[in-house]
Amino acid sequence: MFASIDPTARIESGAVIGEDVSIGPYCVIGPNVTIETGCKLLAHVHVAGHTTLGSGSIVYPFASLGTPPQSVKYKGGPTKLVIGPNCEIREHVTMNTGTEEAGGLTEVGARCLFMVGAHVAHDCHVGNDVTLANNATLGGHVIVGDNVFFGGLSAVLISGSGWLPAFFKHVHRWIGVHFGPEAAAWFPPPPWPDPVVMLQAALQEAAKAANVGLTIENGAIFLQP
């Protein structure tokens, strides 16, 4: 089927519009945008930059996709935003393209739901079947696995330079408070390995010292007294 484009929509020369796409009133589509088969842009949707919207996705009014990164390190290059198939992007959601220094790509997986006002910043890599509830925010460079749910107003900090020592300082303090000084003493000095691996190992040792069962599955932590 041919695309259905409202006469008030503006599609710049160079944009690629797939079959069976519906573009509603007052949408604006930039010249380097690809809208894949079966997508629906309801109204007042802005898609800019080198952005690909995966097949079967639906975008609600006043969403803004593919605008430049909100980063002083961005140099104006043709960085990208790639959104997977069958995503639902609700009103006022914003997603930025990547920065040159981090590979130039912001990526969202398949079947994700972004509720009203959610934000995906530059250089994020979001897995499949992820949900961001209303006004949840991912700072730059955040990596999210599959099947993750962020509640309303949640915020994930940027994983940039200088964050790791502060992160481990807070983890060390948290372990000391909840599991005792002996468990906290296990925490080694820098340099530290991968923070996720380190945190999981620290929690396992802390739980062992406190004689509490602990399992970690798909990023969720379960305690068994």
General description of the model:
This protein is of the alpha/beta class and 225 residues long. It folds into two domains: 4-156, Hexapeptide repeat proteins (UDP N-Acetylglucosamine Acyltransferase, domain 1), CATH 2.160.10; 163-224, no CATH class. It is 16% helix and 29% strand. The chain has three helices and 25 strands. An eight-stranded parallel sheet has the order 1-4-7-10-13-16-19-22, with no helix packed on it. The protein has an eight-stranded parallel sheet with strand order 2-5-8-11-14-17-20-23, with no helix packed on it. Strand 24 (213-217) and strand 25 form a beta hairpin. Helix 1 (163-179) runs parallel beside helix 3 (195-209). Mean pLDDT is 86; it is low at 159-163.
CATH topology category name of the largest domain: UDP N-Acetylglucosamine Acyltransferase, domain 1
* Mean pLDDT level: 86
Question: What is the H/E order?
Answer: EEEEEEEEEEEEEEEEEEEEEEEHHHEE
Amount of beta strand: 25-35%
Low-confidence stretches: 159-163
What distance separates the N and C termini?
Answer: 59 Å
Q: What CATH architecture of the largest domain do you see?
A: 3 Solenoid
User: What is the CATH class designation of the largest domain?
Assistant: Mainly Beta
SSE-based structural type: alpha/beta
User: Helical content, roughly?
Assistant: 10-25%
Total count of helical runs of at least 4 residues: 3
* Major beta sheet summary: 8 strands, parallel
Enumerate the strands of the largest sheet in spatial order, edge to edge or round the barrel: 1-4-7-10-13-16-19-22
The count of β-strands is 25
- Rg, please? 21 Å
Q: Which homologous superfamily in CATH is the superfamily of the largest domain?
A: Hexapeptide repeat proteins
Count of discrete domains: 2
